[in-house]
UniProtKB/TrEMBL annotation, chain A:
Entry's localization field: Cell membrane
The name this protein goes by in its record: Peptide/nickel transport system permease protein
Source organism of this protein record: Kribbella antiqua
One biological process term in Gene Ontology: transmembrane transport
Family label: Belongs to the binding-protein-dependent transport system permease family.
Residue stretches spanning the membrane: 115-137, 158-178, 193-210, 252-277, 297-323
Keywords, sorted A to Z: Cell membrane, Membrane, Transmembrane, Transmembrane helix, Transport
Membrane topology per record: Multi-pass membrane protein
InterPro entries for the chain: BPD_transp_1_N, MetI-like, MetI-like_sf
Organism domain of life: Bacteria
TrEMBL record, chain B:
Family annotation (NCBIfam families): oligo_HPY (TIGR01727), PRK11308.1 (NF008453)
GO molecular function: ATP binding; ATP hydrolysis activity
A family per Pfam: oligo_HPY
Source organism of this protein record: Kribbella antiqua
Family: Belongs to the ABC transporter superfamily.
Protein name: Peptide/nickel transport system ATP-binding protein
From TrEMBL, chain C:
Keywords assigned by UniProt, alphabetized: ATP-binding, Cell membrane, Membrane, Nucleotide-binding, Transport
Main location: membrane
This protein's name: Peptide/nickel transport system ATP-binding protein
GO cellular component: plasma membrane
Membrane topology: Peripheral membrane protein
Residues of the ABC transporter domain: 52-302
Source species, domain of life: Bacteria
InterPro entries: AAA+_ATPase, ABC_Ni/Peptide_Import, ABC_transporter-like_ATP-bd, ABC_transporter-like_CS, Oligopep_ABC_C, P-loop_NTPase
Lineage: Bacteria, Bacillati, Actinomycetota, Actinomycetes, Propionibacteriales
Length: 330, 354, 387
């Protein structure tokens, strides 16, 4: 177990580091110039431009910039802008080029939004999706099963953002059946938190539930034909115990595998969702900062996203080992 | 029981002189990884640990033993589907144990293998004709345009309808698929066929059909067989010589009638007495049974000394400290060897008496 | 790869096959010797109504290709304390017919007619919630492959306890005590530790013992063992067969043993039923069927097997393949493969289904064949070939 955690930690750190380097490199390979963007187009003198560059340390070698950035995460940094000293405490992710606020702080307010969104998504697909799939598997071949399966097929052939846009347009604006998306911290008002997120959850959840219903159905159909299911029936167990105690546990394993692979996709799905419902999450933040070449914010978001990703994958592995005793954490 | 000598026993004696295949101290140790505490320990599965035997042209050697004792691994090493960890495989005097793939080509033709599972050992997307002619092409054995003739000839040889060359494996029954596998092996005119449980997956009536086919091939084409099986009846029927394996080692080897009639190793005795036998019903008095307790130990960490000692009722202290060599015993007849400190023949283990 | 811990190996070494007294130091010197006594006599020696009575059972599966007639008019009976072996090639309907006794077929996809009575109570047509009470309680089933028949994600103890609690309203602790008792009974050493382990931590033979423990936990009156040793090695097979035999002696249950191995039949069965293409073709005591068979298919089976003890003559396989169950041949189902059909006058073999009749005009040994002189053909032609 200890060995496992240690090994996972090393691999997690390397994933995060590689992601950071890649983001950094991509940013500079692209024809972007944050200093110019900040300076503006009309009244930008060469002098002012160079000053901005120096303040942002953009004039230093790329490797040094990256080293300073990385070191800052662990020891903190001090910035000097035109003689004014600014302390950036650990974990320092720098200051936004655009708003001059510490990136760490910006992320702190944004992260709960995205996490709420993704968590709701996970709960929805792993409960409703799996439940619907199991029902379909049990009744395979019936009309209901076939209707369900064809509807999931149709669903998965329509791009996600179209579905999301349509729902937001028709169901919250034109015919306001559902509350519009908004975010209130859960610590402030859980009811409002829930009400504001319910529509985005439904959109991202229902769209993906159909996928998960398909996976679970397939995996359950297979499990239900296993010999040990026949054994369970031969013991005299009821249909319900057989399906939900014996079959579901094995049937979940492939679904969780897919869920693990799907986490990255669900994060990028969150970007769209936040945009469409105008939620102040990481997705919106990263889109905004991409428009303004706000490198520290982009780096910060990518960093946090990769940490979330790695953590979720770890969680999936733990789930695995809880479900399947043959998988030892090694 | 010796008065009905089978045709297959009448292998030309001249050929039987020089062994075609000599296996010497063959070992296969598979490394496995196991997490242990903070680090990892490297362990090995001693799947085969020092197997030696000779096979003469046209002869047939049976390898028997419980599941996991290393029969298939031995077979796969001889055909070089696996590279042995140690040991020699002398084919007509040349050691092929360590040859590179390119140097192996000519030997691959001579040494063919037929697998147990007729369902998974044939590519379902290829026609029978394709399956059989691929080795023909690989080894340049027929001229272009003559392939189909040869395929049909082979199909006929194994008792399939030559007209069916364009069908796919799933259109055949288990026994027929096994015939296709045999035809594929025959295509390259091998001198040795390793048959790894060729009839285990088949029903008795079909099993008998395939056994008869193999027997005909052996008689008519003089092919030598290493015949791997766990069914003692099948092995007795097919093989002149039998080697009994336990946990990666041969524990007893000898002529068929010696092994079945007067086995010397306790494991062989137990194996024979455990085999359910039809004889009991036909008025033959019930045979004495030896019941082994427990299971075969793990080949990762086999017992010291004699590997059978954890289940042996004759075990003494010496069995834990000294590994018994495979050698002729005082009461052995020619060619009969056993690896046991206390070997002695036991004659009444099969219900046969006539 | 699972490896038993070293100490465990010591357990199994000194452990003993269930039912046999623990070997003391002296007994360990000599091989344990077991001879099985055969029950003699007729199919139903006591004359009471047998515990399991199957009458004219048919099982059909409507499929896309047509109706698969897996079982066609099967009748047999098994009294308590006796073992009936059902033999036949794969696909002959052995498993399908016994799954019907357990009511395990999918109702929507299976058509079952005829009668199956357990201790006088009819099973066919019983609603699911009634059937559930019978399954695992009065009737238990042991399946072929213990590896795939045990749930890989639950401990062995959990699975046995569950089987007990389905039919007994008892606390977990009581059920656990019972499960430990059963593990001990079937000869699993160190039950307390084994209780907490998962099937993959067991060897093949131990898994089958666990399956048997699970099957017997509710003291069933009937045990259906569907090829219980086919997936096991001979030495382990011998242990499991001894175990079944000893348990039967102790509890007096009826056993239906499904197998394709005539050697196993010879050692285990009191009665034998030979199935071909969903029908019973020969039925009688083991003595009758194996020593005095009266049906060409049974002859064919006996001639096909190379035995450990027999001479080395050429095998006499049954030619051809079993028929498709989608369209059985007219007349005797065996006629396309039967070497004796020319000896029956007229075309009866291909036109008229032979009835299951007593081989010597009366008595319990029956077979399904038009041949008149079955006894003399067997003695003159078949028996010599069998050696
Ligand atoms: N690639 C491998 N890696 C690790 N262990 C292996 C590998 N292949 C085989 N083994 C092990 O080597 C041993 C011998 O295997 P092998 O397949 O030769 O047995 P066998 O005698 O043919 O058994 P069976 O009768 O079941 O076919 C077994 O313990 C097996 O688990
Ligand atoms: N659910 C099913 N649907 C269609 N055919 C089936 C089904 N189950 C079994 N069969 C067929 O019934 C026949 C008898 O099967 P089975 O009783 O399992 O044979 P065995 O004698 O080998 O146990 C086989 O031909 C099999 O393919
Ligand atoms: S050497 Fe000892 S332990 Fe091994 S088989 Fe002989 S008597 Fe048994
Ligand atoms: S009825 Fe005819 S075909 Fe059927 S077994 Fe008897 S002789 Fe053969
Ligand atoms: Mg093998
Ligand atoms: Mg079956």
């Amino acid at each position: 177990m200890l060995y496992f955690v240690a090994r996972r930690l090393v691999s997690a750190l390397s994933v995060v580091l590689v992601t950071l380097i890649a983001t950094f490199a991509l940013f500079f390979v692209a024809p972007t110039d944050p200093a110019a963007a900040i300076c503006g187009e009309r009244n930008c003198t060469m002098e002012r431009y160079n000053e901005i560059k120096a303040n942002l340390h953009l004039d230093r070698p790329k490797v040094q910039q990256f080293a300073e950035y990385t070191a800052g995460i662990f020891v903190g940094r001090t910035f000097e802008t035109s003689g004014v000293k600014q302390e950036c405490t650990v974990p320092c992710l720098g200051f936004s080029f655009k708003s001059d606020r510490p990136v760490t702080e910006m992320l702190k307010t944004r992260l709960p939004v995205t996490v709420s969104l993704v968590a709701g998504y996970a709960v929805l697909v792993l409960t409703i999706g799996v439940f619907v799939g199991s029902m379909a598997a049990k009744r395979r071949g019936t009309l209901g099963d076939r209707a369900l399966m064809s509807s999931t097929l149709i669903m998965s052939s329509v791009p996600y953002y179209i579905v999301a846009l349509m729902i937001s347009l028709y169901l919250t604006i034109l015919y306001p059946i559902l509350p519009r998306g908004s975010y209130t911290p859960i610590s402030e008002n859980p009811g409002k938190w829930f009400a504001g997120l319910i529509t985005p959850w439904l959109v991202i959840g229902i769209y993906n539930c159909t996928q998960y219903a398909r996976y679970s159905r397939g995996s359950m159909v297979e499990t239900l034909s296993e010999d040990y299911i026949r054994t369970a029936r031969a013991k005299g167990l009821s249909d319900r115990s057989v399906t939900y105690k014996h079959a579901l546990r094995s049937g979940l394993i492939p679904v969780i595998t897919i869920f693990g692979l799907d986490i990255a996709a669900s994060l990028s799905g969150a970007i769209f969702t936040e945009r469409i419902f105008d939620l102040p999450g990481l997705g919106n933040l990263v889109l905004q900062s991409l428009e303004t070449y706000d490198l520290p914010v982009i780096m910060g978001t990518v960093l946090i996203a990769s940490v979330v990703l790695v953590a979720m994958n770890f969680l999936v592995d733990v789930m695995y080992s809880l479900i399947d005793p043959r998988v030892r954490l090694s | 029981m010796s008065d009905n000598v089978r045709m297959v026993d009448a292998v030309p004696a001249a050929q039987a002189g020089t062994p075609l295949l000599q296996v010497r101290d063959l070992k296969m140790h598979f490394p496995i990884k196991e997490a242990a505490g903070l680090g990892r320990t490297k362990k090995v599965v001693q799947a085969v640990d020092g197997v030696s035997f000779d096979l003469s042209a046209g002869a047939s050697l049976g390898l028997v033993g419980e599941s996991g004792c290393g029969k298939s691994t031995t077979g796969r090493m001889i055909t070089r589907l696996l590279t042995p960890t140690a040991g020699q495989i002398l084919f007509k005097g040349k050691d092929i144990a360590k040859l590179k793939e390119r140097e192996l080509r000519p030997f691959r033709r001579q040494l063919q293998i037929v697998f147990q599972d007729p369902y998974s050992s044939l590519n379902p997307r290829q026609t029978v004709s394709n399956i059989i002619s691929t080795p023909l092409r690989v080894h340049n054995l027929v001229k272009k345009g003559k392939e189909l003739d040869r395929v049909q000839e082979l199909l006929e040889r194994v008792g399939l309808n030559p007209e069916h060359h364009n069908r796919y494996p799933n259109e055949f029954s288990g026994g027929q698929r096994q015939r296709i596998g045999i035809a594929r092996a025959l295509a390259v005119e091998p001198e040795v066929i390793i048959a790894d449980e060729p009839v285990s997956a088949l029903d008795v009536s079909i099993q008998a059909q395939v056994m008869n086919l193999l027997e005909d091939l052996r008689r008519d084409l003089g092919i030598a067989f290493v015949f791997i099986a766990h069914d003692l009846g099948v092995v007795r029927h097919f093989c002149d010589e039998v080697a009994v394996m336990y946990l990666g080692k041969i524990v007893e080897q000898g002529p068929r009638d010696q092994i079945y009639g007067a086995p010397q190793h306790p494991y062989t005795q137990a194996l024979l007495s455990a085999a359910p036998d039809l004889g009991t019903i036909r008025g033959v008095p019930p045979k004495e049974r030896i019941r082994l307790v427990g299971d075969v130990p793990s080949p990762i960490d086999p017992p010291s000394g004699c590997r059978f000692r954890t289940r042996c009722w004759k075990a003494e202290d010496i069995c834990a400290t000294q590994e018994p060599p495979l050698e002729p015993k005082p009461l052995s007849t020619a060619g009969h060897v056993a690896a046991c400190h206390f070997a002695e023949p036991k004659v009444d283990l099969t219900a046969a008496s006539a | 790869m699972s490896t038993p811990a070293p100490e465990d190996r010591k357990d199994t070494m000194v452990g003993t096959a269930a039912g046999e007294p623990a070997p003391d130091a002296a007994a360990k010197r000599g091989p344990s010797i077991a001879t099985r006594e055969k029950r003699q006599g007729t199919l139903n020696p006591s004359g009471e109504t047998p515990y399991l009575v199957v009458e004219d059972l048919t099982v059909k599966f409507p499929t896309a290709d047509g109706v698969v007639s897996a079982v066609n008019g099967l009748s047999y009976s098994v009294p308590l304390g006796r073992t009936l072996a059902i033999v036949g090639e794969s696909g002959s309907g052995k498993s399908v017919s016994s799954m019907a006794v357990m009511g395990l077929h999918d109702r929507k996809r299976t058509k079952i007619t005829g009668s199956i009575r357990l201790g006088g109570d009819e099973i066919v047509g019983l609603p699911e919630n009634e059937l559930m009470k019978v399954r695992g309680d009065a009737v238990a089933m042991v399946f072929q492959d213990p590896q795939s028949s045990l749930h890989p994600l639950y401990t062995v103890g959990n699975q046995i306890t569950e089987a007990y609690r389905v039919h007994h309203k008892v606390s977990k602790d009581v059920a656990k005590k019972r499960a430990l008792e059963m593990l001990d009974l079937v000869g699993i050493p160190n039950p307390i530790r084994r209780f907490k382990q998962y099937p993959h931590e067991f060897s093949g033979g131990m898994r089958q013992r666990a399956m048997i423990a699970m099957g017997l936990v509710n003291d069933p009156k009937l045990v259906i063992a569907d090829e219980p040793t086919t997936a096991l090695d001979v030495t382990v097979q011998a242990q499991i067969l001894d175990l079944l035999n000893n348990l039967q002696k102790e509890f007096g249950s009826a056993i239906v043993l499904i197998t394709h191995d005539l050697g196993v039949v010879a050692e285990m069965a009191d009665d034998v039923l030979v199935m071909y293409a969903g029908r019973c073709v020969e039925y009688g005591t083991a003595e009758d069927v194996l020593a005095r068979p009266r049906m060409p298919y049974t002859w064919g089976l006996l001639e096909s097997i190379p035995t450990v003890s027999a001479a080395n003559e050429r095998l006499q396989p049954i030619k051809g393949l079993p028929p498709s169950l989608l369209s059985l041949p007219s007349g005797c189902s065996f006629n396309p493969r039967c070497p004796y059909k020319e000896r029956v006058k007229g075309e009866r073999c291909t036109t008229e289904l032979p009835e299951l009749l007593p081989v010597d005009g009366a008595g319990a040994h029956t077979s399904r064949c038009h041949l008149h002189d079955k006894a003399s053909i067997y003695e003159a032609e078949v028996a010599p070939r069998l050696g």
